[in-house]
UniProtKB/TrEMBL annotation:
Coiled coil: none annotated. SUPFAM superfamilies: AhpD-like (SSF69118). This is Carboxymuconolactone decarboxylase. It holds the Pfam family CMD. It comes from the Bacteria. Residues 58-131 form the Carboxymuconolactone decarboxylase-like domain. It comes from Paraburkholderia caffeinilytica. The gene is pcaC. InterPro entries: 4CMD/NDH-1_regulator (IPR052512), AhpD-like (IPR029032), CMD-like (IPR003779).
Length: 135
């Protein structure tokens, strides 16, 4: 499915992005989401955040043509390292493996990022990778 530029302006467009997001998320995280439509809300504070991410990140960005999932993983890891986003990094290191990156390549991403984001960010990323990969 090709996702068009611009924000959804109606319920149908949002539903299309949600469907695309579920497909992209299932491809990146095999076995995490059950088949069919799923309700990602948990009844707790801020429950809509995951649903927003499903539509706006997974549906509108990850489902786009233009970059391969592998390339999107490389870009995402670089951004998350720069942001010191350790929680998201744990998930995205696993996604990167699914998208074809090797553990050696993931280490190189961290090494390369250290020159641009600083040593503390690289150490935090290495910690997140070790936790995510069991290494």
């Amino acid at each position: 499915m090709t996702v068009k530029k611009g924000a959804p302006s109606d319920t149908s467009a949002k539903a299309d992005l949600r469907t695309a997001g579920l497909a992209a998320m299932r491809a990146a995280l095999p076995g995490v989401l059950p088949d069919g439509d799923v309700d990602l809300r948990d009844g707790r504070f801020g429950e809509e955040l995951v649903e927003l991410g499903l539509v706006s990140v997974w549906g509108a960005l990850w489902a786009r043509d233009g970059l391969s999932p592998r390339d999107r993983s490389l870009v995402t890891l670089g951004i998350l390292i720069a942001l010191h986003a350790e929680t998201e990094l744990r998930t995205h290191f696993r996604i990167a493996l699914t998208n074809g990156l090797t553990e050696d390549e993931l280490a190189e991403v961290i090494y390369h990022a250290s020159g641009y984001t600083g040593f503390p960010a690289a150490v935090a990323a290495r910690t997140a990778a070790r936790e995510a990969l069991g290494a």
